[in-house]
Amino acid sequence: MSAGAGVFSLHDRVAIVTGASRGIGHAIARGLAGAGATVFGLGRSPAAQGDAAAFLYRTCDVTDSTAFGSLVEEIFAGQGRIDVLVNAAGITLPAQAAGDPSAAFRQTIECNLTAVFECCRVVVPCMLRGGYGSIINVTSIGAALGFPGNPGYVASKGGLAALTRALALDHSAQGVRVNNLVPGYVRTAMTEGSYADPERRQARAARTMLGRWGEADELAGAAIFLASPASSYVTGTDLYVDGGWAAKGL
Ligand SMILES: NC(=O)c1ccc[n+]([C@@H]2O[C@H](COP(=O)([O-])OP(=O)(O)OC[C@H]3O[C@@H](n4cnc5c(N)ncnc54)[C@H](OP(=O)(O)O)[C@@H]3O)[C@@H](O)[C@H]2O)c1
Asked: GO MF terms on file (predicted)?
């Protein structure tokens, strides 16, 4: 393959991005569309927030595998291919806010881990029929590091990182690549509590090498790389977009 801007092109590719009603998934959906893909962005909300003109928004709860399966069938029937799946839908239920820690743990695993497995199961056969496949799972620095008060989230992201490696191997012979996209602290609805608290906001910024929080749009370039032929020899790995959080000692 020759080097150049062409390898980053998603022209004629069809992508599904879960968790696209806002935040990181929304930014990735816009980014993939900007690189030329036809993008279907999913969320439970009736509409996506902000400027979602670049992609096609569909209401879908990813924990409902029947609904997700029907939607994928409809997209494949209309488009004739599905090339890229970005699993960005995620929830966090901090233990102190959850009335029932066991229920919160199970609910988090259901959305952040089990649903990703089911979505991949549904989409991979479409990728095989189209002859191209890249799956991007949005994990977290919490996949590899301990964070307090949220065991379900940490366990779900650690499990998701491991699921990526398992699926990358299982689908390697079929040419479907599976990778983790690993955000650090990014300013979204999910992190609005710690961003609003000056002490926690500053502590998280200071913990990075770059000295600041990330913006959701800063995840889009890495997603384009992993979705496109630019990453044709990349599978089963973690791409950190964390301002240097995970690499920092002192
Ligand atoms: N922000 C960070 O600092 C950070 C750091 C590391 C990893 N992440 C990960 O990045 C991903 C996106 O998070 P974010 O920060 O952008 O949070 P966010 O603003 O809260 O967005 C979460 C998205 O997931 C969707 N979602 C949640 N449950 C869903 C379900 N059952 N079915 C379909 N969609 C669902 C939400 O849409 P609806 O509410 O409309 O369903 C929303 O679009 C998550 O996986 C998160 O764990 C975030």
From this structure: oxidoreductase activity, acting on the CH-OH group of donors, NAD or NADP as acceptor
